[in-house]
């Protein structure tokens, strides 16, 4: 091969390799690795009135005007190193019959406040099904999830919901609140779920895509929800509008 032709071939090969690498790098960006599920508890209780956490629901409760933690879920991973017997128990029995989750007094107090479902053993289910796949201790797993929900409740998204209880919110208004709180485009990583309660469609849950760093410790407790959202993949918003349900039946 002539020297100039050999040089040309090398240059072309180098360009192809660089382009392939760039595509691979691009494909590794913007992937959702975790889901933060934030429930609107009054809507949940509207169709689960017999649940322990719903029997004592009041407009004065923290969960009446703040998002509640449903869970922090690794994508496409469930029941990691969990026995078949325990899986079966989780799927078919009362969650209060599942093994207790070992938590520090501080984490337990924070979790009981932000996850009303602990009254029904929700944390036991969440730990077995999802937390087991994070390689974290139960204390670190729930501590991380609580911190992320607290950031959501300190945002314009929570303020929007709290100020519109009993009223209808549409997708565009909620998206705008997400973008205001967590940066332009944050709303592209959020899905809203609604449920029918009688003749009214109420907003029941927001599931928020997060990047792989979701379970990494936060240095000095710095806010990080915005970065986790911005680094996640995009999704469709789902439900286009619904009522922000009030506590009580």
Task: Write a structural description.
- With 249 residues, the chain is of the alpha+beta class.
- It has one domain (36-243): Ribonuclease T2-like (Ribonuclease Rh, Chain A), CATH 3.90.730.
- 41% of the residues lie in helices and 15% in strands.
- The chain has 10 helices and 6 strands; from the N terminus they run αβααβαααααβαββαβ.
- It has helices spanning 3-27, 41-46, 52-55, 84-92, 105-114, 122-129, 138-153, 156-162, 171-182, 225-230, and strands at residues 34-39, 68-74, 168-170, 190-197, 200-210, 241-243.
- Strands 2-1-5-4 form a 4-stranded antiparallel sheet. The chain has a two-stranded antiparallel ribbon with strand order 3-6.
- α5 crosses α7 (138-153).
- The longest helix is centred in the N-terminal third of the chain and has 25 residues, at 3-27.
- The radius of gyration is 22 Å and the shape is globular.
- Residues 8-28 have low confidence and may be disordered.
